[in-house]
Specification:
about 100 residues; Pemi-like Protein 1, Chain: D; 2 domains; two-stranded antiparallel sheet; about 35% helix
Length: about 100
């Protein structure tokens, strides 16, 4: 298969026109996936901003403070929030004993 770099650049500059299937899916062009580092089974974040659909690689964030956390984290909490929750739990337990 021949890759036409000039045609690809022209498409990217003018935007891609893609069809939405019956399930609401749209194929993200390969050049865009590569540029964003989106691979098979990657998660993406899709939002609506001023009437424009914005799609970007998903970033796992702490459910409490919103800071970025590692993809390997089992729970959606950063280390700092886990530490604060533990501290709060200990204080609550100690105050209950009084």
């Amino acid at each position: 298969m021949f890759f036409d770099f000039k045609e690809t650049c022209r498409e990217e500059m003018n935007g891609f026109e893609k069809e939405v299937d019956s399930l609401g899916r749209v194929v993200i062009p390969m050049t865009i996936r590569r540029a964003l580092g989106i691979e098979s089974n990657s998660k993406v974040s899709v939002t609506l901003q001023d009437g424009t659909v914005v799609m970007m690689p998903a970033i796992k964030k702490c459910a409490l403070c919103g800071s970025k956390i590692s993809e390997e984290m089992k729970f959606r909490l950063c280390a700092e929030c886990v530490s604060q929750v533990k501290e709060y739990a200990v204080q609550a337990e100690n105050s209950k004993d009084l």
